[in-house]
Amino acid sequence: MDAVQAAERSAYQEEVPALTQHISGEAVLRMQRERQSFDLDNTKALARERVLSARFERWLQSTRQRSNDEAADRTRLIADISETHGKALHGESRSLEALEVACTTEIAGVATRAVLVSRSRSRGDEVLASDLETVMHRLQAQVIDTFGGDGNSNDSDNDSADDDD
């Protein structure tokens, strides 16, 4: 019985742990390398996300500022038109027809400027939205590649690197 117990003790205390260490050692090292790679890629992705978020916030702020500026300009123009209209009604040097022509001309000019500004802003917004969409697609693709799409691209690269060693 002592021989069986000694063989059993030897198997459970020496052979099984040694075999387990040998088999799992390579996997643990590979997992550590993958974790380091994941941490680096994750840091890069987070940095890109922060840059995109900051860019988007700046764009929102500038858009708000432009809208506020345009509203102030419209208010000023309406006040100017109202003042011109008031002066004309009080008998200054214009007749009713001259006032109508001046108001119509001013209104047409404001409408034209509004259309031009609107077109310009639309083009700028379209370009920015397109750029943002492109960057987001690239970021999503990077995240999928990094955190596991089909899994073939990372495994095959790592396996071939292991084979070269």
Count of domains: 1
**Strand residues, percent:** under 5%
* Average residue pLDDT: 81
Rg calc: 36 Å
What is the overall shape? rod-shaped
Structural class: mainly alpha
Tell me the distance between the termini.
Answer: 47 Å
- Give a quick account of the main beta sheet: strands, pairing sense, barrel closure: none
Description of the structure:
The chain has one domain. It is mostly helical. Residues 151-165 have low confidence and may be disordered. The longest helix is centred in the first third of the chain and has 88 residues, at 2-89. The protein is built from three helices and no strands.
Task: Please sum up the structure shown.
The chain is mainly α and 165 residues long. The protein has three helices and no strands.
Features:
165 residues, 3 helices, 0% strand, mainly alpha
Q: Secondary structure elements and their pairing?
A:
Layout: H1 2-89, H2 96-147, H3 152-164
